[in-house]
Amino acid sequence: MDRTLRVVGRVLLAGALLVAGVAHFRSTDEFLGQVPTFLPLREEIVIVSGVVELALGVALLVLRGRRLAVLGLVVAVFFVAVFPGNVWQAVHGSSSFGLDSTTSRVVRLFFQPLLVVWALWCTDARSAWSRWAAWRHRAEA
Fold this sequence. Notes:
Elements: H1 2-26, H2 28-32, H3 42-62, H4 65-92, H5 102-109, H6 111-122, H7 125-140
C-alpha cells in the first residue's frame, strides 16, 4: 500500500512539474513576477527553470531504484532553490499567478516546504539516504 501511494505521489508530482514546465513557455510574464528585477537575463531564467522542471518531471516517471532516490534529493533541492523567488514575490508584492494580496503571497510560501517533503517522500529519498549513511558508517568502522 505504501509503495502504491508513493508511486501515485510521484506521478502526481511529475505531472505538476510537467504542467509548470510547459507553463514557463506559455505564460513567461507570470513567471517573471517571481524573478527578482535586479537579476540579469530574467526571461532566460524563466525558460531554463521551465526546461529543468520538464526534465525533472520526465525523470520522475522513468527512473527507478537508487537513481530515483537521488532524483528525489535533486527535486527537493530545486524546490529550495526557487524558494527565494517566491519570497521576493511576497516581499515586493508581485501579483503573478493571481496572488494579489500579501496574505495570498505569504500563504503560498508555506507550500514550498510541503513540495520538498513530497519529493523526498514519493521517491523514498530519505530512506535511501539513511541506508547509505548506515552503510558508510559500517564501512568506516
